[in-house]
Structure formats: structure tokens, C-alpha cells
Amino acid sequence: MIVHRGIDSLSPLPYAVVTSGTFDGVHLGHQTILKRLNEVARAHPDGQSVVMTYWPHPRTVVSNDSQDLRLLSTLEEKIDLLEQAGVDHLVVIPFTRAFSQLSSEEFIQQVLVDRLGTKKLVIGYDHRFGRDREGGFDYIQAHQAEYGFEVEEIPRQDIEAVGISSSKIRTALNEGNIDAANRFLGRPYSLTGTIVKGRQLGRTIGFPTANLQVDDAVKLIPANGVYAVDVIQGGQTLGGMLNIGFRPTVAGEHQTIETFIFDFSKDIYGEHMTLQFRSFLRPEQKFNGLPALVEQLQKDEQQARVTLKR
Fold this sequence. Notes:
- This protein has two domains: 2-164, HUPs (Rossmann fold, 3-Layer(aba) Sandwich), CATH 3.40.50; 189-309, Beta Barrel (Elongation Factor Tu (Ef-tu), domain 3), CATH 2.40.30.
- The chain is 33% helix and 27% strand.
- The chain is built from ten helices and twelve strands.
- It has a six-stranded parallel β-sheet, with helices on both faces.
- Strand 9 (225-233) and strand 10 (236-245) form a beta hairpin.
- Catalyzes the phosphorylation of riboflavin to FMN followed by the adenylation of FMN to FAD.
- Pathway: Cofactor biosynthesis; FAD biosynthesis; FAD from FMN: step 1/1; Cofactor biosynthesis; FMN biosynthesis; FMN from riboflavin (ATP route): step 1/1.
- It comes from Fibrella forsythiae.
């Protein structure tokens, strides 16, 4: 996949089959659109599939209530997922207030026609674009001869049959409903970051943890609690149990992301690690002293190991 950052250096492709959207999470609903995009592109001898996406997320630019918006995928994660989906070209458009003010006609002419040379546009049901989301399927269909490309809309029943949205997945993660989130995504939800030093209390009670500092502040952190996770580190995949929260039993003062990696004892401070969420085990809770905490952690470990073997 060729990644184009911005549109200024783009040249029209011989036969560009294009779709656009934020594609946060690249979930199963998005994958329905991407599958059709690639099918249309592969049906033409010169066809190439093109995804246009926007960074930062448009809501962080145009909405007054977006300060707390957290995303399912960072830009780099989204790039990786779209490449896995078989997309030929990804155009990452810097989303600014000036760009948000383009009318639908300006967007179509300046971006789809002049820069990409679009021959076919594939969009999801009720997809909107341009200033105040004024443009849509009906407008393009009525003017497709004028612009020189065709438009295809994914049928409403196909989109509604999937019944998935990024906002539904965010809600599931905020509630600790990992099973639903993973089902909607079609894969385990993940966090990636750098391993940093914590208070190192875990090693004193037999549960040393790797403390994760997530790479991007906009990435959504699931609900506080204990999870069974796959741990990808140093080219290998291990099992582990993860605690997200404030560690009330030991008077924690800020949220931490701490993973006890099973059967592992290396020093990996400063290295990168990815956590793939497999199951929610229990909410975070305060115990009456360290012995009670250790007893529960032993039960958590046993439950996590059984869960990860399934």
C-alpha cells in the first residue's frame, strides 16, 4: 500500500476507485465497504483502490464537545489495518478548519477529480461530505456525468445487517464489554506503548508488572478493571493479566496500565509492547490489605490462564 500524506503532490491515477471516511477502528462495518472497494478496483484492468481518511479526527476540529473524544485506532494503527485490508493507496488528508469549509462541489472537483482522477466512488449508506455534510449520494448521482465518474452506494440493508459503528465499540470498551468490542472489530482490541518504571510494588508480592505508557493520548483506554490479554513483545506473543486503574489497595494516585506477563522475567524497560484484550475478568476493587489482594491476584491469574487457552 502506498501512503500519501496530503494531496498537494498527488497525480491522477489511471482508474481510481475511491472511498472516504474516518475509518476509526477499521471495524467489520468498514470492512464491508473496503471489500466492495477492492472488488470494483480488481474488476478493471487499471483499477486501483484508494481510501481517503482524515487526521486529526474531524470531530476534534469542528466540534465543541470533542475534548474527551478517544479513538479506537491511532493513525499508524489505521494505516496498518487498511494495508491488511488490501487497499492500494491511502491518502491521509490533514483535517483543518479551512478544509472543513470546502463545499461538496469544491471537495468533489478539487480532491476527487483534480487530484485523484476518480473513476468510481464507493460510499456507505447515508455517507455525507463537504461543509455541513451537505453532499451525498443523490447529489453525486445526479451530477456524475458532469464530474466524469460513477458512484456506488453500499445498500442500506448491507450496512444495517452489520449493525456496527465506531461509537458502539467505544461504548462497549468504556463499559468493559470486551467480548462485544472484539466481535464488532473482528479482532482483539489493542493498546501499544512504551514500558516505563512504576512504583515496583508488584515484585514485592510476587506479581511484577510491566507498566505501559500508551503512545498516543487520543487512544481509548478501556474501563478500569482486570483483563486477560495477549502480550506481544520482542517478536513473541505471551499471555498475561492486565490491571487498568488507580490501585486503591495501595493508595494509587493516578491511572496505570500494569501487566503481569506469565512465565516471563526479562528487563524490558524502555521497550515497546502491544496488549490484545481477550476477556474482562472483574472490576477494579479495594481489598482489606495486601494478603487479600495477593489471594485475589492468584485467582485472577488462574482464570486468565484458562481463558487464554480457549
